Amino acid sequence: MADDSITIEVNGEPREARPGQMLIEVTDACGDYVPRFCYHEKLSVAANCRMCLVEVENAPKPLPACATPVSDGMKVFTRSEAAIAAQRATMEFLLINHPLDCPICDQGGECELQDLAMGYGRDVSRFTERKRSVADKNLGPLVSTDMTRCIHCTRCVRFGDEVAGIQELGTLGRGETMEIGTYIERAVQHELSGNIIDLCPVGALNNKPYRFSARAWEMEQRRTVSPHDGFGASLFAHVMGGKVKRVVPCRNEALNETWASDRDRFSYEGLGAPERATTPLRRRDGRLVPCSWQEALETAADLLRTAGASAAALVSPSATVEEGFLVARVFEHLGSANIDHRLRQRDFRDQEADPVMPSLPCDIRAVDSVDALLVVGSDLRSELPLLAHRVRTAALAGARVSFVEHRAYDYLFPVLARHNNVELQAELETLLEVARGGQGEPQHQATVDALRTAEDAQIWLGQIALRHPEYAALRRAAAALATETGSQLGYLAEGANAAGLALAGVLPHRAPGGGSRPVSGKALDELLRSPPETLLLLNVEPVHDCAEREAAQALLSQSRIIAVNPFVDESTAAHAEVVLPIATWAETAGTFVNLGGDQQSFQAIASVVGDSRPAWKVFRVLGNLLAVPDCDYADADAVLAAALSGMGEWARDTTFKVSGDLPPPPVASAARNLELGPYEIDSIVRRAPALQQVGRRAADEANKVA
Question: What pLDDT score was predicted for residue 531?
Answer without folding.
Answer: 95
